[in-house]
Structures are given as structure tokens and as C-alpha cells.
Design a protein that fits this description.
The complex is a heterodimer of chains A (473) and B (485). Chain A is mainly alpha-helical and 473 residues long. Chain A contains 26 helices and 1 strand. Chain A folds into 3 domains: 177 residues, no CATH class; 133 residues, no CATH class; 80 residues, no CATH class. Helices cover 67% and strands 0% of the residues of chain A. In chain A, helix 2 packs across helix 3 and helix 21 packs antiparallel against helix 22. Chain B has 2 domains: 102 residues, Immunoglobulins (Immunoglobulin-like, Sandwich), CATH 2.60.40.10; 347 residues, TolB, C-terminal domain (Neuraminidase), CATH 2.120.10. The chains are: A mainly alpha (473), B mainly beta (485).
Chain lengths: 473, 485
């Protein structure tokens, strides 16, 4: 035991960096997997010398260049954690080496560990970018290099030259934009941005899986509902979890909402076919990305404009994406004039969803927008389900009955809503229920519902009853 | 570090050399060789910056472009035709009043292609400075907005006001009074905001709001004397169109006119230009400052009946002694009769013309593809649509050069999303030439640019205002204005 201890302490300067690396890598890979992927979505790196020349100039050009270059690889799940773990470990090693020049091993190790933890925690902040870690690392390397000189005058000269170079190429070591002095990881928040990421990638099964823990949150519930709708299962699953009004179906885009909310709002509208809101949501999100060039939003703008038939605008965005590493192939395949038959067919299908009758609205007039989409394309089942669920969430049964076409769409909650409406209008007979396609089994269940409502949490009756009870109180 | 940099460079080279380059024309020229920006057969002022362009075609290579004016020729090799400012200036000086012929030879997909076009260099110069706000085409939110001043004789661009020094406040566009560099104004919005007035180079921060007004001032213009400003106060609401390509509609739920007296810190609010049953907006002065033009429409329930809103263009006398707008209001262009809507009137500094934008309806034509610039001859009363310069998307927000021979306007032609400044020559008879976009140092600039050039405004000299001035103004208290008795 003593021998092991001695071996460990004897090799602590080798073991500690390895431990630090594994800890950082493990955390960002497994516990905080979406944090770094989001950074990639907010960045654009173009393989174009002219763009590089124009973009990376002025103070801090090198830090911005390397940061953006590295961040593009965060698109892949392993690279982000790997890069960040290496950078954080390098910070710890650099601090240790600097301290070890003046102090013994133990205090040097403690200071290095503190710096590692501090840098690690800062990395977990949602507003932090890789650049800041690189800046810290860059300055530490500059200090290390200047310490290599033996003579005092050469050390001083090197320090001045390196400091000037560092300020020019890395920017200021301290800046208010570097965010809070310290941060703590928010695992729940990472899951939510993960949901946002998976929704944008249209990985609906992953969305369903990832959202389960957080369905009490509006954003998670919204993503879950969208995923269910995309799997044509919205009506069946809507009340499988507690819903908090229609905001879990459609989110309004507006100046009083957070950027995250405005970003998420565009996702459902994009799938439904309302390209004006989807486009504005993408532009707002683009504005909020650090250099106003988030790849994810440019991709969305390209898709919106391709579907809308605004090919010149689509071309602009596709031209940018065609100069990236990870979106190049997709961009080239979507470029007007170079599209395959399959791509054209897909775009044409999406195009049929667009509203044909114009009216001016604020995005909270969801019902009118959905009706417009259905008027243009009655086969837009996504819009139909959203419309019916929107009516139900707002307890608007009269509109629901207007919008409900039993032959076109079947889900138990719709039939449950029909039964309530029939009951409210003194029409609750077998014949009337049959007219609206209500199954006899569902009609029978209604009788049992009132005895033990708790057993029927997944029904519209339960949701409606709760609302009635709340209004009575 | 060396190894890292060389690895990065190797990777960049590798990737940038693989696959075909995608140089797609967004709004390229006609002819066998497509160039972007389209500088073919344009008329340019003798003091404009180099017209850098690129051959915007797939498979183009080995381009040789020769510019000839008189006995002088300059040849530029490569698909990106970019001049040094010094060389261009010297070439253009010799070409003033003459035509430059441009001959281009290139290989397109292995086949030789030749093209030829001309550029006429007008002896009429243009005001050397252009201000604009750089902003994404978002009308819901803003983030990191800047107001810039560009010297259009070269590529120098300076910041007049930016988010960095104003706590990321919103700011509205800079306007010159009569194209003068020493008379101008812009707004910083938010709690520490105000109207920043530059009068004879002295800066003041003003609260152009007083009791009884709908809001602080919004659109407007400065009087030639510098003493007054005429403005609209608007409650502005952004909204969406249901149909995809129409994008957004911004409308006023209420709007009035007001006059600011900068000498006495008074707002002159007159009931006949602040009627509850009318929308009054976009006021401007005539060149002599004795008249005010503005747009007026009947009110409707909005946004439901937005398509019924038709703004007419009207005029009234302006009393330069007391700042009052006359009660006799003459209609210059009737929106109801024309079944269309006018906005953004601007009088030419020589007093001859009044230019305005016409769209099908409403007060926000920047996404209206039908929007067209109109020209009213104030001597004859004749009004013509400037169809010959109309782009495929909207043309709005124009501004005159102080010699009245050039104007700039924001056009979304091409991508339909990002407004860019286009310049156009107008002669004494009102004849127009093909507009050309603001030249940039990089011929690829517009390919990467993701911001609109909002409200481009020409000035005959630099305003001299800097971002540092903005910071100082931002930190100062704002001068209050009171309602005139």
C-alpha cells in the first residue's frame, strides 16, 4: 500500500494531468454532451481565404480564428469534449510549470488544480466560448516561453514582445464579454439545449427519449409534443403528461421572449409550413449567435427560402454553407440548378404546405395561421393535429367541433372532446356520438371517468375537469 | 505553435482545393460572362471607389480583364477583379466625362468566352460620404447594431455609434440635413438614449418627446437653417404575413407629425397634423425649407385591414419663424386614386424633384417587391414611376447627393433579404442611368454579408462623429423638450 502511495505521489505530475483530462473529457462527453455541440451551431467557419482575411483581423484575430476553426468540429460528438479536455489540461499543466519555477511541487499542484477547476467551471457557462479558454492558455504559454530565457534582460524583452504579440493576436486577457467570474454546470439546462439540438436535427425518437425527465418544463413539453406530432401521434399522446396550456404546442415569437424561446418557436412553425415565422425565428437566433453567423440558423434560412421558392436568398445561404466542412455536401445537393430529382420532389412536397391566402398577423394568432395552412393544403395532417390540439388546450370546444373531421383523423382525446361537447349541448346520444366517429368503448369509459378521474389522467376529460375545478376555485 | 499553424494551413489548403468552387451569381449581370456586382454599362461618378467585381459563374478561370479609357489601358488577371484605390483614382481621373471600355476574356468550362461592356464616367461627382445602419433583417429584436459612415471615394469605414459603447442599445439611422456633414442626427434608444444632434459640429443629446405626443420622434428631417426638425411620432408594430415570400409587415397603429425647435427646446405639436382619424408620417422639408411634405392615410383597424391603408403625399407651408406647419394642405399624389401607398418622400437639394416610394399598401415597403421609386417634378407637377431602375425586389429609403445629380437608395434586389445601397445618376431632364451597388474592397463582400444597409444617407462631408462621441453622449443626460404654448 505504501509502495502504491509512493508510486502515485512520485508520478503525481504525470497522473494528475491524465486525471484532469479524463475528468473533463468524461464530463463533457457524457454528463454535458450538448453544451459544446451548441457552440458549433452558433459558429460558422468558411474555408475561404478572402472570408478569413475579412473576418479574422484586428485584436484577438488568432484566438478567434483558432476558436472558430476548432468549434466547427464540435459538430461531431467526440471532438468537442476532446478539444476542451485537452485545453483545460494544458492550462493546468502550464500553471503547474509556471508555479513550479517558484514553489515546491505540492503548492504548485494545488494552484494548478484550482486553476483547472476554475477554468473547467467557466467552460460550463452557456455564454462562454472556446476562445476564452484559448486566450487563457495562450497567455500562459507566453509566460512559460518568457520564463525559458535565463538572463534577466532577455527574459524582460521576451516578456514585453510576447505580451505585445499576445494582446495583438489573442486580445485582452480580461474582458467583460468573458462572462461571469465563475459558473456551475446546469445539467437540466444541458438536456433542454440537447432537446433543441435534436429537434433541429429532426431526431424525433431522441427528442422523445431526452424530454421524458423534463416534461414539467414548457420547452421540454413543447419538444415532446412536436416529436409526437411528427410521428403522427400527437392526438394519442398529448395528455400522457401534464400540459400547461397551448404554449407547450406553439410558442409565440416576440420581443418579450428570450432568444432561446424565439429559436425554439421557429421549429414547430417550420415543420407546420409557416415559413415567415420560421424565418424570423432563425434571423433572431442568428443575431444572437456570437458573430451573427450561427451555422444552424444559416442552414434553417436556406431551407426556409428553398421551400418558399426564394431561390436567390437560398443560394446566398447555401453558398456560405458550401464553404464549410460539415454542411458542404448538403449545401451543394440543395443548390438550385444542381438538385437531384429526389431533392426537388421533397421541396415540392414541402412547398405544398405553404399558405396561399395572405393575411397579416402576430405570431400568437395560431388558430388563424393553422387554418390558413389547412386551407392551402387540407392534407397537412400536422397542421390539422396542431389545430385540434390547440383548440382543446384552449378549452375551445365550439371551434374544435368546427375543425374536427372524424373520418380524417382519429385519436382518443378528440373523441373524448366530442363527448364533452355533445354533453354540453344536450346531444349526448349514441347516434350523435356515432356521427362524430366516437367509439362505443370510449363512450363507455366516460361513465367510469367520473367515478375515478385519477385513473384517467391521459384523457381530455381529466384535463378539462381540472380546468373546471380551477375556474370554480 | 508552429506545427499547429502549419497543420491548420495544410488542412485549409487541402479542403479549399477539393471539390468545385461554388461561385453562384445572386444578382449577376447579363452577357456571356456573368459578373457580380453588376457593373456592366453603368454610369459612375468620377470620385467613386474602385468597382471591384468577380466573375460569378461556375467553371470560370483564366480571366483577363482590360479597362481602356482613351489611350490608357489597365489589365487585371484573375476571376476577382480588384483594384488598388490609388491606381483606380488615377485611371478614373483621366476617364472623367468619357467612357471606359472593358474587355474580358476567360475560360468557362474549358471554352474561351469573350465579353465587352462600357462604364461611363460622369463629370458630376457624388457626395463622398454615406451613412447607414448595419442590422440583420429582423424587425422583432436587435443585437449589436452599428451606425457607420463610409467614404465612398475609397473603402474607409468608421463607426459613428455602435453597441459596444452604448450597452447594446438599439439605435436608429443617421440622417443628414440637406446632405451636410455638419448637420445631422441619429437616435440611441433605451433608458440612456436620446436624439444625438450634430449642428455645426457641436453634439447635443435631446429628448424629442413632450406631453401629448404619441412617442418620441421617429422619422423626420432637419430644416436647412438647422433650427428646426420635422418628425413623425409613431406607434410601430411588426407583424408577419401568412404567405411565405411576403415575409413581414410593419405598420403604425397611430402616427402624428411634430416639429422640434432646437433653439428653444420646444416641441411644436399642431392638431391639424396630429389627427386621430389619420396616420401622418415621413415628413420632410422642401429644399428652401418653406414647405413640408409628408404622407397621410385614413385609419383602419390594423393589422386586419392593412391592405386598405393607402398613404397620399401632401404638402403644406412651413413658417420658418415659428416652426408652424400651415393648415392649407395640398395633395401632391393621391394614394386612394392611384390605389397605392406613398412613403419616404425626399426633396432634391436643388428644389426641382421630390422622390418617394410607392407600394401597393401600408407604410413599410421594404419587403414589398412591387415597391417602386417615383419622381415628382416640382416645377411641372408631373409624376413618373422610375420603372427603368426598378429591381426585382423592393427599392426604398433614398437620399440625394447635394448636387441633385445622384441619389442612393436601399434595394433588396437579388436575394430579397438584405438591403444594399445602389447609386443612380439623374440629369436635369430626369433621365436615369442603370443603378450600381456600393463598391467594396473585396469582390466577395456581398456573398458573405449577412446585414442590411439600413437607410443609406449621403453627406457632402464627414460628420466627424465617432464611436467615442457616442459613448460620451450616451453617458450624458438628455436635454428635455417641452410642449410649445
Amino acid at each position: 500500500m505504501k509502495k502504491i502511495k509512493e508510486t502515485i505521489f512520485g508520478n503525481i505530475n504525470r497522473i494528475a494531468p491524465l486525471l484532469a483530462f479524463l475528468t473533463a473529457y468524461g464530463f463533457f462527453q457524457f454528463a454535458y454532451p450538448y453544451h459544446l455541440m451548441r457552440r458549433e451551431q452558433m459558429t460558422l467557419f468558411l474555408y475561404d481565404w478572402d472570408y478569413i482575411r475579412q473576418t479574422y483581423k484586428g485584436m484577438g484575430w488568432l484566438a478567434r480564428f483558432i476558436s472558430d476553426f476548432l468549434q466547427q468540429f464540435f459538430h461531431l460528438p467526440v471532438i468537442g469534449p476532446l478539444v476542451i479536455a485537452l485545453a483545460l489540461t494544458a492550462i493546468a499543466v502550464a500553471v503547474y510549470r509556471i508555479c513550479n519555477r517558484f514553489l515546491s511541487q505540492r503548492p504548485s499542484l494545488i494552484i494548478a488544480a484550482v486553476c483547472f477547476i476554475w477554468s473547467f467551471l467557466r467552460e460550463t457557462s452557456n455564454l462562454y466560448t472556446t476562445r476564452y479558454t484559448l486566450v487563457v492558455l495562450g497567455y500562459l504559454i507566453a509566460v512559460l516561453i518568457s520564463l525559458k530565457f535565463k538572463k534577466t534582460w532577455s527574459k524582460a524583452t521576451a516578456a514585453v514582445v510576447l505580451a505585445a504579440f499576445a494582446v495583438w493576436s489573442l486580445g485582452s486577457p480580461v474582458h467583460k464579454h468573458y462572462g461571469k467570474l465563475c459558473s456551475v454546470p446546469r445539467i437540466e439546462y444541458d438536456r433542454i439545449i440537447g432537446l433543441d439540438d435534436q429537434v433541429a436535427r429532426e431526431h424525433w425518437d431522441k427528442v422523445l427519449k431526452l424530454s421524458r425527465k423534463d416534461l414539467h418544463m414548457t420547452e421540454a413539453s413543447y419538444c415532446y409534443n412536436l416529436a409526437q406530432a411528427m410521428k403522427d401521434n400527437l392526438g394519442q399522446s398529448l395528455f400522457n403528461h401534464s400540459q400547461n396550456g397551448a404554449s407547450t404546442l406553439l410558442i409565440r415569437v416576440g420581443t418579450d421572449r428570450t432568444v432561446f424561446s424565439n429559436t425554439l418557436a421557429g421549429e414547430a412553425w417550420f415543420q407546420l409550413g409557416c415559413m415567415t415565422i420560421a424565418e424570423q425565428s432563425a434571423i433572431i437566433s442568428l443575431q444572437a449567435s456570437p458573430d451573427h453567423t450561427g451555422a444552424r440558423y444559416i442552414l434553417r434560412l436556406a431551407r426556409v427560402n428553398l421551400i418558399s421558392g426564394e431561390f436567390a436568398a437560398a443560394q446566398k445561404y447555401l453558398s456560405l454553407l458550401s464553404k464549410t466542412l460539415f454542411y458542404r455536401r448538403w449545401a451543394l445537393s440543395m443548390m438550385p440548378g444542381s438538385q437531384s430529382e429526389q431533392v426537388r420532389a421533397q421541396l415540392s412536397l414541402e412547398h405544398t404546405k405553404l399558405a396561399k391566402t395572405d393575411f397579416v398577423h402576430h405570431s400568437h394568432e395560431a388558430r388563424s395561421i393553422l387554418l390558413g395552412l389547412l386551407e392551402a393544403n387540407p392534407r397537412n395532417m400536422l397542421a390539422r393535429n396542431y389545430l385540434l390540439c390547440y383548440d382543446l388546450m384552449n378549452y375551445d370546444l365550439d371551434h374544435f367541433i368546427e375543425d374536427y373531421t372524424p373520418m380524417k383523423i382519429k385519436a382518443h382525446i378528440y373523441q373524448e372532446a366530442v363527448l364533452i361537447w355533445l354533453s354540453q349541448n344536450d346531444k349526448l346520444t349514441e347516434q350523435e356520438a356515432a356521427k362524430y366517429g366516437v367509439d362505443a368503448t370510449i363512450a363507455n369509459r366516460m361513465q367510469y371517468f367520473f367515478r375515478t378521474p385519477e385513473k384517467y389522467r391521459g384523457t381530455y376529460w381529466y384535463y378539462y375537469l381540472n380546468a373546471l375545478e380551477e375556474s370554480d376555485q | 505553435m508552429k506545427k499547429l499553424i502549419s497543420a491548420i494551413i495544410t488542412l485549409l489548403l487541402l479542403i479549399s482545393c477539393t471539390g468545385k468552387d461554388v461561385c453562384v451569381a445572386i444578382d449577376g449581370s447579363q452577357g456571356p460572362l456573368v459578373i457580380y456586382p453588376d457593373y456592366k454599362d453603368v454610369t459612375i461618378p468620377a470620385n467613386i471607389a474602385p468597382l471591384n467585381f468577380r466573375y460569378a459563374m461556375n467553371g470560370v478561370s483564366k480571366a483577363v480583364t482590360t479597362f481602356t479609357a482613351g489611350s490608357r489601358s489597365v489589365t487585371i488577371k484573375g476571376t476577382e477583379v480588384e483594384w488598388s484605390v490609388r491606381k483606380w483614382k488615377s485611371f478614373l481621373a483621366d476617364a472623367a466625362g468619357n467612357t471606359i471600355t472593358v474587355k474580358a476574356d476567360a475560360t468557362v468550362n474549358g471554352k474561351p468566352v469573350t465579353d465587352k461592356w462600357s462604364i461611363y464616367v460622369s463629370p458630376d461627382t457624388i457626395d463622398g460620404y454615406l451613412t447607414y445602419r448595419l442590422i440583420e433583417p429582423s424587425y422583432q429584436m436587435y443585437n449589436e447594431v452599428s451606425i457607420m459612415e463610409r467614404c465612398i471615394e475609397n473603402f474607409d469605414e468608421t463607426v459613428i455609434c455602435d453597441y459596444k459603447r452604448t450597452d447594446n442599445a438599439c439605435m436608429n439611422c443617421h440622417i443628414h440635413g440637406q446632405g451636410r456633414g455638419d448637420l445631422s442626427m441619429y437616435y440611441i434608444r433605451g433608458p440612456h438614449g436620446g436624439a444625438i444632434l450634430n449642428r455645426d459640429g457641436k453634439l447635443r443629446k435631446l429628448t424629442l418627446n413632450a406631453k401629448g405626443m404619441l412617442s418620441g420622434t421617429v422619422y423626420g428631417e432637419l430644416h436647412p437653417s438647422g433650427r428646426f426638425g420635422v418628425f413623425s411620432t409613431n406607434i410601430i408594430l411588426p407583424s408577419f404575413h401568412a404567405v411565405a415570400g411576403k415575409r413581414m409587415e410593419v405598420y403604425d397603429s397611430a402616427s402624428d407629425l411634430t416639429v422640434a425647435d432646437f433653439d428653444n427646446n420646444r416641441m411644436i405639436n399642431l392638431p391639424h397634423v396630429a389627427r386621430a382619424d389619420k396616420f401622418e408620417t415621413f415628413p420632410c422639408f422642401s429644399a428652401d425649407g418653406k414647405s413640408v411634405f409628408w404622407c397621410v392615410a385614413d385609419t383602419f383597424p390594423l393589422p386586419q385591414e392593412i391592405e386598405s391603408v393607402r398613404y397620399s403625399l401632401v404638402r403644406a407651408d412651413f413658417d420658418t419663424e415659428n416652426g408652424h406647419i400651415g393648415t392649407q394642405i395640398d395633395t401632391i399624389w393621391n394614394g386612394q386614386a392611384a390605389d397605392a401607398s406613398a412613403c419616404h418622400p425626399k426633396a432634391s437639394p436643388d428644389g426641382r424633384w421630390l422622390m418617394f416610394t410607392v407600394a401597393d399598401y401600408g407604410t413599410f415597403p421594404i419587403f414589398h417587391t412591387e415597391s417602386t421609386l417615383y419622381l415628382a417634378d416640382l416645377q411641372t407637377g408631373e409624376i413618373t414611376a422610375m420603372e427603368s431602375i426598378k429591381g426585382n425586389k423592393s427599392d426604398t429609403y433614398h437620399s440625394w447627393s447635394s448636387n441633385s445629380r445622384w441619389f442612393v437608395f436601399a434595394s433588396k434586389r437579388g436575394d430579397g433579404q438584405y438591403g444594399k445601397p445602389y447609386f443612380c445618376h439623374i440629369d436635369a431632364q430626369g433621365n436615369l442611368t442603370k443603378p450600381f451597388v456600393l463598391p467594396q474592397k473585396s469582390s466577395r463582400f456581398y456573398l458573405y454579408n449577412l446585414k442590411s444597409f439600413n437607410v443609406p444617407d449621403l453627406g457632402n462631408a464627414s460628420t466627424g462623429m465617432t464611436a467615442r462621441d457616442a459613448r460620451i453622449m450616451f453617458s450624458l443626460p438628455s436635454e428635455p423638450f417641452s410642449q410649445a404654448e
